[in-house]
């Protein structure tokens, strides 16, 4: 059986197998070496994600080779905005992430866990998106701000450093590029094809540093099959 990379997160993960998505790109990049398993849950925060752990990562099952944890965009929703039901206090967010990591590591200390911070927020892009859905009835209060989301990204990155885990600070790295808001974000939050490509590139760098590019293919390549005696090629 092939080893697995499990993508665990919110809607940004759920959408990662859409055309041009970073999850689909990973599946293509490591085809016949790793099965990329999508476990994205739109709208979820880290509090709700905790209830999924015994189902997604049960004790005693074959542990995944790696897990990406991509939460925070919903945790950072403002209490006074339309996403208030998704809000998780900053310190709770960090502790929830810690509990998720600990559960995965309790299943297998060898599983590579990669923490990904929420991306930056384009407030105007969020406002335009709300107006496209609700017109004049759209709330004037922002559901998220870049400043608050940055605080959550900082805590995610800090936890990764504390635990010695690789991480991708999307909030910081994306904003280093000019025009990041339109280049990387389709609605002020979710990813454009270029945004997906950005996540993919960062993850491949981490995975390949951990030897993923050297993983063997499952079963022989067609060029290695003995056409006169094909059974012998599958005997080992």
From TrEMBL:
InterPro entries: GDSL, Iah1-like, SGNH_hydro_sf. It comes from the Eukaryota. One of its GO terms (molecular function) is hydrolase activity, acting on ester bonds. CDD domains: Isoamyl_acetate_hydrolase_like. Keywords: Hydrolase. Belongs to the 'GDSL' lipolytic enzyme family. This is SGNH hydrolase-type esterase domain-containing protein. It comes from Genlisea aurea. The lineage of its organism: Eukaryota, Viridiplantae, Streptophyta, Embryophyta, Tracheophyta.
């Amino acid at each position: 059986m092939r080893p697995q990379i499990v993508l665990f997160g919110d809607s940004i993960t759920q959408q990662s197998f859409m055309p041009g998505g970073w999850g689909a790109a990973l599946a293509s990049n490591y085809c016949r070496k790793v099965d990329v398993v999508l476990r994205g849950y739109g709208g979820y925060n880290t509090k709700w994600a905790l209830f999924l752990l015994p189902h997604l990562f049960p004790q005693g099952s074959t542990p995944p080779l790696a897990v990406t944890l991509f939460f925070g965009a919903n945790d950072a929703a403002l209490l006074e905005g339309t996403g208030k039901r998704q809000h998780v206090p900053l310190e709770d967010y960090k502790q929830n992430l810690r509990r998720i990591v600990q559960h995965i590591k309790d299943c297998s200390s060898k599983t590579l866990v990669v923490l990904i911070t929420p991306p930056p927020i384009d407030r105007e892009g969020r406002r335009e998106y709300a107006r496209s859905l609700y017109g004049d009835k759209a709330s004037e209060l922002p559901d998220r701000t870049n400043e608050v989301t940055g605080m959550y990204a900082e805590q995610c990155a800090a936890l990764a450093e504390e635990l010695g885990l690789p991480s991708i600070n999307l909030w910081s790295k994306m904003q280093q590029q000019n025009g990041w808001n339109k280049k990387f974000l389709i609605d002020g939050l979710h990813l454009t094809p270029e945004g997906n490509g950005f996540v993919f590139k960062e993850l491949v760098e981490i995975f390949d540093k951990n030897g993923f590019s050297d993983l063997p293919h499952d079963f022989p390549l067609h060029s290695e099959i003995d056409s006169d005696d094909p059974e012998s090629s599958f005997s080992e």
